[in-house]
Amino acid sequence: MGLLDVDDINLLQGKQKIKQNKKPAKKEIVPKKEEVKINYNNLIPEDERVQMHETIKLDAEKYQDFTGEKYHYSLNFYDFEVFVHDWCVTVLNPIELTQTIIVNDTQALKRYYNKHKNQIWVGYNSRNYDTFIMKGLLLGMNPKKINDDIIFKGLKGWQISKEFRNITFLNFDIYTSNSLKTLEGFMGDDIRETEVDFNLMRLLTPSEIRQTIKYNVHDVNETLEVFRRNKYLYESQIQLIETFNMDIEMIGLTQAQLTANILECKKKEHDDEFNFPIIDKIHLKKYKKALDWFNEPTNRDYKKSFSLDVCGVPHQFGWGGLHGSPINPLHSKGRIFHVDVNSYYPSQIITYGFMTRNSNNPERYKQVYEYRLKLKAEGKKKEQAPYKIVLNGAYGMMKDKFSLAYDPKQANAICVNGQLMLLDLLEHLEPYITLIQSNTDGLIIQVEDNEEKISKVKNICHRWEHRTGMGLAYDEITEIFQKDVNNYCMKYSLQKEVNQLKSLLEEYYPNIQVLDNELIFNDEV
């Protein structure tokens, strides 16, 4: 059935934009969500519904950044809309330069899927939703029932049907921390949704389907734009899979799940999460109260925490990390230093053996760490990405009950020792600094503008590094405005900005060598 006219085609090809209705159409009155009762077995046959399967050719100029050479698995950006009796999906393939719209036509969907099932499908929050709508349709299931099980009952896909695992579907979720509509707003785009109610108890009219298609296509185009701005997420996932010779089907895993597989983790039961060691490298006297608190068995409860003034600044200690800042907002100028512990949690894992006990290849973590340092020394930022993900993901997955790497004892060891080591550093620095803030893996301190005192502070830091096995990085700040530990802005010294510029130049212009204040291009200054 020909649902789309010339204007619709132009809109879907990106030649026109969706026109905003000054007066929204009146919605049909439907029962409130809690009153809607749906007989999922009373599904109207597809041949009695409005059906559509149309493929539109796209303008190659708009997708020059998508090539088969760059994306050798190809890419299918997709999004589903599901109603009581109707569904539609838009699939945009920028490599093939096609946009395919399918409405209520399972056979057409199966044909497209069979042709593209070995390619990557990219959606927004698709790991939790669209993947299972797709698999359900391929299995002949009712998509509205799957939709409601996920949205209203809060079920995960694997809880709905075990058959889902039998469908190969290479889904990559480009989801970030915000909703797609929020990101559309950030990008200055239209954020309106279709005015067609998802709980209409009748078939949609051709007009309602046309409107739904337009906004479905709009969301797919926005998903592609989000991908463009966050393509490093995809690239790092592919790099991880290829670097560690993993199956491409793992493209759908979270980075934490992928890390667990790389470290060859197998699920194990543990009942000793608070039986963690406190390392003997921690030397506390004035603030030994913190050490005693963690050693007290009655405090081993995730709901508990305690406060302690350190360097004249209120601090919070507990089972989630160290935080401290002055009560009142501040503005300060002078010799201010951001003292950051390099790869704090990964360093503890390697130095003190705090790797998850579920890993059958813990040595691989150290190999990844050392190789990443090698790449960092060579200035290869992009190449570091997959290794950095493995290193930084190890701690989080030890706290995740659903992870193959779940081992809360080791995670607690990292968290607690991390707090106590930073407290140790503060105790030794206290006579020579003004503390601006403490955070999970670093400090911001101010030192009197006196080279002898600055040297003293750095010597204390060096001794702490030698004793604990951790490494520190220093960035000088010239000015800071701070409300609290999570809300502040600061101005780095010129040297910091020069270093960042050097890094960018060397990354994007390989023929340029940066030495001090000179640029050398093809051996010429």
Supply the key terms:
525 residues; alpha+beta; six-stranded mixed β-sheet; five-stranded antiparallel β-sheet; 16 strands; 38% helix
What does this structure look like?
Helices cover 38% and strands 18% of the residues. It is an alpha+beta fold and 525 residues long. The strands form 4 sheets. It has a 6-stranded mixed beta sheet, with helices on both faces. A hairpin with a 5-residue loop joins strand 8 (313-317) and strand 9 (323-324). The radius of gyration is 28 Å and the shape is elongated. Residues 20-33 and 519-525 have low confidence and may be disordered.
Biggest sheet details: 6 strands, mixed
Spatial order of the strands in the main sheet?
1-4-3-2-5-6
Q: What count of helical segments does DSSP give?
A: 16
pLDDT averaged over residues: 87
Round the Cα radius of gyration to an integer and report it. Answer: 28 Å
Number of strands: 16
Q: What is the 3D form?
A: elongated
Briefly note the structural class of the backbone. alpha+beta
Proportion of strand residues: 15-25%
State the low-pLDDT regions, or none.
20-33, 519-525
- End-to-end gap: 67 Å
Considering DSSP H and I runs of 4 or more, what fraction of the residues is helical? 25-40%
